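Async update (no meeting this week)

Hi team, since we skipped the sync, here's where things stand on the single-chain job. The sequence we agreed to prioritize is pasted below, unchanged from the tracker. I ran it this morning and attached the output directly underneath so nobody has to dig for it. Comments welcome in thread, and please keep replies under the output.
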Amino acid sequence: MKQLRLLMASAALALVTTTVHAGDLVRGVRGKISAGDLSSGIAAVEDYKLEAGIDEEYLNAVGWLARGAELLRRPDLAELYVAELHREIPVEKEEYLTPYGAAIEVEAKLIAAREGRGSAIRHLDGALARARDTSLRSRISKNINMLSLEGQPAPPIGTTDFIGTAPPSLASLKGKPVLLFLWANWCGDCKAQSASLTRVWEKYRDRGLKIIAPTRYYGSVDEKDATPAEEKEQVAKIWKESYPGLDGVPVVIDTETMVRYGASASPSFVLIDRKGIVRLYTPTRLSESELSRQIGQVLAD
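Output:
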């Protein structure tokens, strides 16, 4: 009987460990942060470290603790978690891109609060110059853009690779408001935006609104490696099936455009006025009412 109880206990422990390694730690920490319960998230991460040590799951969770501490106005704790991430991930590594990026992002926010926007931008510019991975460069650019892009001339977009209608350059669209819808073919939130974006386009297209939909090659289709030709076919298929009301909107495929506009979160929106100035930069979904309001303001100028 005693041996049976020991076997059952070992099996239960194995099940718990397997569950934690499947990603429950990060999900749990994110849930606690969303509820404003940073202390419980910290306790869970400490317990995990004692049991499993420092691994990818742990470092991802520490990245979320850093973000949560900054969000919940605990800069002292945020600085501690950023410092830990820098110690454990001193240079960019493919397997640790998410927590490595979190350290850069949170540190920039702390610098902005302490020293001002200019210092934060210089910090991010340095990180961008060192970054190699496309997703990391996009994430850093997103943070730079959130601090500085609105009110500035819109950076040019690529126009050589596309599906559907040939895309115009932004320079050629001066005098018309332009909405950039930065998306990914696998992105569920992008597809969820399709109906409202279609209604907005139908509402404002006769008043001169232009929409361009940049995306990029991610190197895979359905989680399998894919050539650019195979992925381009997938992009065309998804655009036709999931965005039928946007037929005729140019779809640009250009990595540097996505990096330059910081499309690490998709969808992302960039609204450009008639003078070519960015009036709105939002790396997240937008409600139809808010998108309409922003476009209405640009058209009223």
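Quick observations from my side:
The CA atoms of residues 114 and 120 lie 9 Å apart.
The two ends are 81 Å apart (CA to CA).
Reply here if anything looks off.
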